[in-house]
Amino acid sequence: MPEPTSPGALAGIRVIDLSRVLGGPYCGQILGDHGADVLKVEPPQGDDTRAWGPPFQDGVASYYLGLNRNKLGTQLDLTTASGREVLLGLLEGADVLVENFKTGTMEKWGLGHEVLAERFPRLVHCRVSGFGADGPLGGLAGYDAAVQALSGIMSVNGEAGGQPLRVGLPVVDLVTGLNAALGVLMALQERGRSGRGQFVEASLFDCALSLLHPHAANWFLDGRSPGLTGNAHPNIYPYDAFPTAGVPVFLAVGNDRQFRLLCQHLATSWAQDARYATAGARSVNRAALREAIEPVLSTQDGAALAEALMAIGVPCAPILTVDAALQHPHTAHREMVVRIGNYTGVGSPIKLSRTPASYRHAPPTRLGKPPDESTAG
């Protein structure tokens, strides 16, 4: 096991994080977890998410705490010339700037990419935006749920015959933060060759469209618009949730071998039925197959069934609540719950053998004192 004190993969990288709410802060937390020195710069009133509760800890909402680990904190009023001058001083020693101001705001302040690139040619400037700067929706503000609606994500999420539903977590914001961090790392890698930084943009709209697999791929091929299918996968079956005598389970049978193993375990002859013998046939005849599976599983203990199926190579899991998942023994084994003092959060899912993630700073719950303006560059 690597030493917990070993420097992270991004040790020596300095990040100025001007972003608020979710996508940008999540990007900054990813970089911070892997060793970057991240300074979160908030407006005088603080990041909006400080108030997005309950629950609260020391007056700060859990929402904020979940996105701002491994950052030091300060505050600046960038609407003032003196605040912007201090920011320029901070950027003198920075490698990365992360911001998610509405398109045109940084430019209005004289801090657009062209200006910053001229003064700080090695700076990687990352912007998280709603829709990008131009085009029919260019410059508009973006919010996770609205972009889920606009991108088609909601149209495939919900029970058949019901209404479209928002995915129950901010999947668009989160994947935008991930793509922003990935873009920053790509730009830093390229800077090692060219010596120059560049502008990185991750927009909610683009990232939402990138999540449409396999629905987009299906539509490109056959032109049929997908609809609501509940828990069922549009292309493979049984890949669906089923009730049992105990906790409900999700069967994720992806190939013929797994289906045969499922049939053997349940002592059924479905694998010999031409309607179910191949993946394509099972997908076409899914209604009849579900009708056959349901009564067999109705007598099974869900947790025991899932454990037995996983042991023989059939993907299956009990459908757990959030608290049960966070307390699962494997969660602890994978070190996915971390504590810093009285802070508890979800650990980094990125596992590196020599330079693992480290958890050095709890989120800056108090708004940091503004930097001394006399230190501006």
From TrEMBL:
List, in alphabetical order, the Gene Ontology terms for molecular function in this entry: CoA-transferase activity
Q: Which UniProt keywords apply?
A: Transferase
Q: Does the keyword field hold Transferase? A: yes
- Supply the Gene3D superfamilies for this chain: Crotonobetainyl-coa:carnitine coa-transferase, domain 1, formyl-coa transferase, domain 3
Q: Which domain of life does the UniProt lineage start with? A: Bacteria
Q: Where are the transmembrane segments?
A: none
Q: Where do the record's region annotations for Disordered lie?
A: 353-377
Q: What is this protein called?
A: Carnitine dehydratase
